[in-house]
Amino acid sequence: MTTFYQFSATSLRGQQIPMADYAGKVVLIVNTASQCGFTPQYAGLETLYKKYAAQGLVVLGFPCNQFGKQEPGDADDIARICHVNYGVSFPMFAKVEVNGSAANPMFRYLKNELPGVLGGRIKWNFTKFLIGRDGKPLKRFAPYTTPEKMEADILAALEM
Question: Which residues are catalytic?
Fold first, then answer.
């Protein structure tokens, strides 16, 4: 049986990070973009991360340029926007594709486990996936679902 922990991803700084590093934590995966109408969600994601990190929450951001070309910058541009404009301190990863033949394998897995309104596709930037401490996907959230509206589900996952 496949779990989230079998995947790895490249950090924004080019390091290969095994998702197994997050074993035992509740993980919130977000495909992000810095020029999107949902970009202000970075602030709410950071608030959740700071509020619940000590209890085992980690937020992982995966920039994506597939929707309206809203993440055109390179790693330095992305880091600057995230850190300077939104105070992001949670881990950010290298740009990925989330749909199509070049979709990142981890996102293929997440979409298969938690299909959304479009089935095996991600609708837009800031789609979110909540992963339980056991590495199993628990819930998928639409782009318009704000971080604040996910808090009860995150708390429930932290208590499991």
Answer: 36
Q: Where are the alpha helices (DSSP H) in the chain?
A: 41-52, 75-80, 86, 105-113, 147-159
Element (H, E) at 63: strand 57-63
| pLDDT tens digit sequence for 55-86 | 999 999 999 989 888 777 777 777 777 665 66
Cα–Cα separations (whole angstroms), residue 128 to 13, 61, 137, 139: 22, 10, 11, 8
| Nearest in space to 92 (alpha carbons), one of 137, 45, 55, 144 | 45
**Nearest CA-CA partner of 62 in 132, 116, 8, 138:** 8
Residue pair 26/150 in contact by the 8 Å Cβ criterion? no
Q: Pairing mode, if any, of strands 57-63 and 128-131?
A: unpaired
Span 8-33, pLDDT tens digits: 999 988 999 999 999 999 999 999 98
Q: Which of 135, 95, 99, 145 has its CA nearest to residue 118?
A: 99
Specify whether the CB–CB gap between 61 and 45 falls below 8 A.
yes
